[in-house]
Amino acid sequence: MSTLEEHVDINVPIDTAWDSLHQVENYPRFMQGVREARTETGGRAHLDVETGGPTRELEAEVSDRDRDRVMTWQTKGTPHLEGTLSFQSIDRNNTRVQARVEYEPDAVRESFGGPKGFAQANAIERVVRGDLEQFKDYVERER
To answer: Which portions of the chain have biased composition (kind: Basic and acidic residues) (predicted)?
Structure first.
């Protein structure tokens, strides 16, 4: 299992950033490859994801520690991905969002294609970093 950690600072209060994360239908606006997203019952989200091949459907179980501003998630099926998104107040008007993603590189490559080894890790890092930057732009613009 490989682990990736990235963060981004957003120029909005923590409540604004936290609330924006919970608007699942807007995930296509800031998550690369997500074509459609919706909330389902039982703390699940459904994502239609396209990564250069056919569109794949992913189901994710999501849980919040609302008081701590931490969301944990894990996909069901293959590939198995899991992670956390933590929100920390920097000051009244600024928030740090920390993403931690755990994944099995071979399972990701088999499911979505792409190179092996170091190149695969770099691709995943670029996607996570890009999604965080897109989330920052989305939240600051929608504020």
So the answer is: 40-49, 56-66
